Each structure stands twice: as C-alpha cells, then as structure tokens.
C-alpha cells in the first residue's frame, strides 16, 4: 500500500472529476486525481497558427483515446432513406443495410481536461421539464431531482468558467445573470436570426463557455472558430483552465496523468478500500476513504463491470443489474448549403446561435424528448477550404478553382441535437475476448435507434431544411445524420441515479447504492438525455452537489 494519504481519490479528470476536485479542495480536503490519458499543453499542442491546421483535428497523443468496440447499432429501414448522410462530392456515405460507426465514432478525449478539451464550449442548463419524462409522458425515466435542485450549482459553474449568454433562456429561470454578455453573431448566424424574425422562431445568442471579455486572468476569445481543435488562448472554459487550475492553486490537489485505473478494491462490508493504477514503474495500490468514479458513460461502466469478484459476481455497484444499461447516444442532424451572397461564414464563434423553440419534451409532434437547433458551420468542419473542396464543391481544374474562389465563405449549416430515450437494446458490455494492453476487457457499445428517435430525426431534418429554405437556399450540398452513422460526442445513462436501488445504480447525490464510499460524477448518472443540450454544465453541477454531500 502507498504511504501517502488522501481524503478522496477521483478517477478521471474530465468535467465531473474536475468539478468535484475543485469543491473538495476548496474545503480543505486533500485530493488525488488519477487520469488515464496525458496532459495537453495549449502552447505546444494546439498549433492552429501553423500551415496545415485544417488537416489536423484535436491532437491525438498516446493514451488520449480509449479503444472501444461496436456491437449492435441497428438496421436501416429503406423507408427512412431520406435521413441518409451524403454530400455532393462523395455521394451517400453508408449505402449498406446496417448502421455503422463514423470515422470518429465515439468522439472523446482521454486526458487532463477530458472531452472539455475538444468540446465546442456550449454551456447549457437542462430544460426543467426534462427531469420528469416518466411522470409527464409515461416514457423514459424521471430524475430523482429537479431543476431547482441544480440551479445554484449551475450558477456556481457558470461563474467559475466565465459563461457568456443572453439575459433570458425562456423556461431556464435564473437566480442571477450570466457573468459575461453574449458573443457577437457570425455572418451565417446573422442570416438565420434575420429569417427567424420573419418566421417567428426563437433563435438567440447561445450560452458559451468562451470568454466574451477578459475574465479570471484569461483573455477574451479571438473568434478563430477552432474550439474543437483545442484552444491555445485559454479563453475556452475547459476544466483544465477553470476548475483544475483553481484546485491546483490550493496545493491540495495532486494529478497523476497516464495512470489508468485497473482495479477498484472493496472489502467484505462493501466499502471501497483502495484503487490500483498503473504507473510508469508498475502497479500502485492507493488507499482511500472516498472514491469518485468520473470516467464517462463508457469507461465508468466498463470499470464497474470489470471489477468482479466472489462477493460481487456481476461487478461493482451492480446489485440492480443496471450498470451499463440505458445507454443513450447523441442524436444529430445537419443540413449544409452554399448561400449566394453570404461572405465569411467561416469566421466567428462555433455554435454562436441557438433555437430552443422545440426543446421541451412535448414540443415536437410525434416524438417525445425535444431537440434544439444551432448555426453549425464550424462544428461540421466547414471553416477552411479543404472542407469545401472535399465535400461541397465537386470537379477539378480551372472551373473548380474558380468555384472555390467564388463560393468559399458562403457555407451555411443548420444542425440539430435531440433527445434519446433509454432502450434495453442499447448498453455497454465487456468484450469476451479482446482486452487492452493493461488486461481490462474492452467496452462494446450497443446503440439502436428507437422509433421515437427516428421520428425525431425526421422532424429535425424537415425543420433544418425549412429554416435554410427560409433564407433562400434552393439546393443542399451535404447532410449528416445519426440515422445511418453512429457519431456520439455526448453519451449518457449507464449508471443512472434514482431513488430505488432496484432500478438505479446511485442515489440522488451520486453515491452508489451498494458501496457507501463509492460515488459517480459523470454523464453515466443521467436518467434522461435532455432535449439536445450540451451536458458538461449539468455534469459539473451534479459533481458539485455530490461533493457537498460528501463534505457533510
């Protein structure tokens, strides 16, 4: 056993682990974070000022992505072929009968900061009605808490990261304004808001974890539009620049990178005694009175299921049999076009404008859960000429080059993200025969779209196309869809919270029902996905709530 003592050990340095560490160290607790991935240095790793920047996505380092496998992703019904992914240059992406993972598949970052390092930076609160799907609509699952239970924690997180947003977001009532004013709109978003004023749709400036003014010793955003490639200025509110930076200043936080946890050791009473991680010198066993698992909705259930024993044959915290179940992916749609007369749409901040009109669970006819729409030129990768040349503008030679000169900067995109309901076919399992280099079975993602998801995708597609038609688009150049390709940046639900230990993994504060000192602080907890909101702010709010319960 190691000699150094900590009051809590946190597994994972992403949104939830970082927020929990900040809250605990603020009250004087000594905390260790074990992170499976590496550190990223904004000064050297995010080379957006170098030639070839457009060909480089967020940098991949050794151990910076966990390997996953894919199982049942569902079959394609030709009756829904209008939802297929395609573009003008390549044609249809998935002509076969099966839904397949896209090139990015489960898009995540394993490293100090987690997926907030490459996220676009949307800072969303869940719609208050999303907390009671089962009660209100007899489907999905209720949260064991409500919007009011998280509101103060939302406010704390927004203040720490320097969120910029509008005065009001409708049903999302606030106890105080956003700390910073909203960002100016990009040229593409200005066109969408002008059309919205004519059609009566509720578009507005999006709430963003990027600084619209200098704040907390960080500079204002320069609007390069490359948030998903990593922010070299440090204005984006990724947790390495916010929660972790402040927690480290206390002197009470230790972070060990490239330290994958292999075992979580429990005693006869069910209490967690220690965790075993791999260091450059071999296995290390670290005792802890409190263990917080914040590895994400794929790796968290993987660790719980892999830690089986004589007393826990189905894995840690799995007395309910719900670990790994209720997996919910990201349901997405985007329509892109080249709009004559539009200039410089590659400039500005990603996801700077949003439409909440259809975000409530009952806001879309024929489907439950809701969705939201954004202006999404940057998110789909049309912020440089290579994206145009390989996807939007076919041909070669002199005519092709002239088209590129004439049309670059005219792309406009409406994207939608929608709710996903839990389904018994969608879950995380362990591979029976494939393991990683540390001996842990690889996680297998099974994710099948329900009829509710298909109906919601039809609504999202129809509405996105209609929005673009309203501003003068007559021909589309690209559409991307969850219908035929699994591409998930946000995943949820595999260790959900609840009041009843028979059908949930943790209680309403994130403490596992089976282990009194094992807590979970990531999107595994979500009983429902929400109506397309970006989840990082809710993950952080839940982590603060859990940390306060631990402090009690």
Automatic annotation (TrEMBL):
Its EC number is 1.1.99.11. Gene3D superfamilies: FAD/NAD(P)-binding domain. It is an enzyme of class 1 (oxidoreductase). Residues 211-242 form the 4Fe-4S ferredoxin-type domain. InterPro entries: 4Fe4S_Fe-S-bd, FAD/NAD-bd_sf, GMC_OxRdtase_N, GMC_OxRtase_C. Coiled coil: none annotated. Keywords: FAD, Flavoprotein, Oxidoreductase. One of its GO terms (molecular function) is oxidoreductase activity, acting on CH-OH group of donors. SUPFAM superfamilies: FAD-linked reductases, C-terminal domain, FAD/NAD(P)-binding domain. It comes from the Bacteria. Belongs to the GMC oxidoreductase family. This is Fructose dehydrogenase large subunit. The lineage of its organism: Bacteria, Pseudomonadati, Pseudomonadota, Alphaproteobacteria, Rhodobacterales.
């Amino acid at each position: 056993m190691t000699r150094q003592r900590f009051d809590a050990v946190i597994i994972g340095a992403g949104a939830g682990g970082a927020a929990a560490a900040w809250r605990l160290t603020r009250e004087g607790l000594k905390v260790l974070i074990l992170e499976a991935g590496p550190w990223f240095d904004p000064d050297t790793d995010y080379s957006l000022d170098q030639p070839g920047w457009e060909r480089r996505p967020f940098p991949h380092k050794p151990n910076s992505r966990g390997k996953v496998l894919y199982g049942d992703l569902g079959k394609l019904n030709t009756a829904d072929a209008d939802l297929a992914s395609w573009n003008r240059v390549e044609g249809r992406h998935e002509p076969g009968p099966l839904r397949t993972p896209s090139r990015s598949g489960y898009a995540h970052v394993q490293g100090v900061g987690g997926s907030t390092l490459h996220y676009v930076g949307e800072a969303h609160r869940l719609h208050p009605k999303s907390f009671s799907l089962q009660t209100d609509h007899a489907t999905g699952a209720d949260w064991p808490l409500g919007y009011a239970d998280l509101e103060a924690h939302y406010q704390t997180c927004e203040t720490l990261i320097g969120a910029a947003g509008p005065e009001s977001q409708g049903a999302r009532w606030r106890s105080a304004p956003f700390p910073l004013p909203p960002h100016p709109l990009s040229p593409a978003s200005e066109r969408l808001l002008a059309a919205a004023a004519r059609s009566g749709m509720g578009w507005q400036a999006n709430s963003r974890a990027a600084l619209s003014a200098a704040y907390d010793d960080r500079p204002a955003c320069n609007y390069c539009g490359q948030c998903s490639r990593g922010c070299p200025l440090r204005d984006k509110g990724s947790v390495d620049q916010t929660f972790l930076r402040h927690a480290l200043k206390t002197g009470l936080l230790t972070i060990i990178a490239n330290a994958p946890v292999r075992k979580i050791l429990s005693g006869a009473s069910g209490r967690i005694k220690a965790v075993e991680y791999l260091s450059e010198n071999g296995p290390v066993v670290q005792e802890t009175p409190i263990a917080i698992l914040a590895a994400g909705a794929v790796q968290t259930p993987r660790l719980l299921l892999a830690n089986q024993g004589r007393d826990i044959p189905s894995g840690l915290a799995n007395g309910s049999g719900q670990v790994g179940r209720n997996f919910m992916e990201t349901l997405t749609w985007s329509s892109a076009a080249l709009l004559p007369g539009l200039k410089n749409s590659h400039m500005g901040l990603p996801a700077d404008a949003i439409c909440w009109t259809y975000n409530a669970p009952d806001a879309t006819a024929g489907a439950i859960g809701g969705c939201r729409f954004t202006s999404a030129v940057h998110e789909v990768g049309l912020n440089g000429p290579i994206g145009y040349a390989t996807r939007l503008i076919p041909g070669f030679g002199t005519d092709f080059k002239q088209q590129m000169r004439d049309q670059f900067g005219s792309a406009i995109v409406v994207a939608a993200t929608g709710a996903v309901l839990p389904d018994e076919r969608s879950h995380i399992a362990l591979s029976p025969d494939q393991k990683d280099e540390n001996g842990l079975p690889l996680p297998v993602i099974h994710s099948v779209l329900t009829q509710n998801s298909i109906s919601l995708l039809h609504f999202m597609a129809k509405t996105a196309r209609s929005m673009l038609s309203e501003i003068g688009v007559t021909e589309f150049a690209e559409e991307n869809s969850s219908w035929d390709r699994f591409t998930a940046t946000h995943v949820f639900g595999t260790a959900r919270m609840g009041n009843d230990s028979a059908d949930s993994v943790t209680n309403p504060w994130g403490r596992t029902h089976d282990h009194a000192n094992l807590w979970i602080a990531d999107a595994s907890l979500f009983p429902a996905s929400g109506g397309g909101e970006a989840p990082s702010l809710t993950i952080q709010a839940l982590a603060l709530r859990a940390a306060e319960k631990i402090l009690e």
